[in-house]
Amino acid sequence: MNEIEIPPKINYEDKLIQIGKIKLNYWEEGNGPETLFFIHGFTGNVEEWYFQFFHFEKKYRVIAIDLRGHGKSEIEDKEINADDLINDIDGFLEKKGISKINLIGHSMGGMIAQYFTLKYPEKVEKLVLISTTSGGPQRKIPESYIKFIKSTTVDNLIDIMSRSASIPLKKMKPERREFYKKLQKWSVERRSKAISINTYIRYLQTSSKINLRNRINEIKVPTLILYGDKDRLVAKTNSEFLREHIANSNLIMFPDCGHAPQREYFIEFNNYLSQFLEEE
User: Fold this and answer.
1) Alpha-carbon distance 73 to 69, whole Å?
2) Which of 68, 106, 113, 253 has the fewest CB atoms in 10 Å of its CB?
3) Predicted model pTM
4) Is the pLDDT confidence value at 2 over 80?
5) What domains can be seen in the chain, in order of their start residue?
6) What angle do the packed helices 197-207 and 154-165 form, to 10 degrees?
7) Burial of 63 by CB count in 10 Å (0-12 exposed, 13-18 middle, 19+ buried)?
8) How far is Cα 271 from Cα 28, in angstroms, rounded to an integer?
9) Cα–Cα distance between 86 and 120 in angstroms, integer?
């Protein structure tokens, strides 16, 4: 942990690929026989997965994309729906000639990963779901909240969200406070540049419509579910529900961890992921 500089000096190349009417930004490293495909969460970007790239690129082909409207990816001037997002991924795989992936999704990216696996089960070798949910009954975003979003800044919205996703520093173990403080600062700075107010609203509306609760029992691929016990953004009951309804799944809880175990405890996370990928 102490050997990693925060924020890290990113030396991975941003690349663009034309998928339909838009260009998606992505990272791609490694040339191993298996592909790891990473999907970030709401307001994230490819840099979410830096700690996984430098670990797994030695053995695997590792790919992460900026979802449309996030990071450096373009977006169409229309409503976003979940089908657009999984079709972007499928189009990417088709263009790259990739037939099968190990699919890893965090938060909203985990919802997209579930939906992709349900629609294209033959393209997913293994599934990893981090701090995520299967959604639920469609809920309308209150107009008062939309009005608040439009009246504030992306920086403020990201700061509010980050506080909900993180453990308060005063409750953090003393030996982890400095690392966690730097990690949180980097997260806010990075994510504030990753999305616009308009796209923020559109994704809120999209995620509120996703409901896979009655379908996740159709997921048959080996699945690893991970969450932090101090996550205040996505309750642990969501991970427990996934474990209960995905037959071939295992659940791992990270103690004293917030919404992003892949960054907060990246060493332990990478070890768990490595073990899972190597299982027959």
Assistant:
1) 6
2) 253
3) 0.95
4) no
5) 15-278 (3.40.50.1820)
6) 40
7) buried
8) 21
9) 9
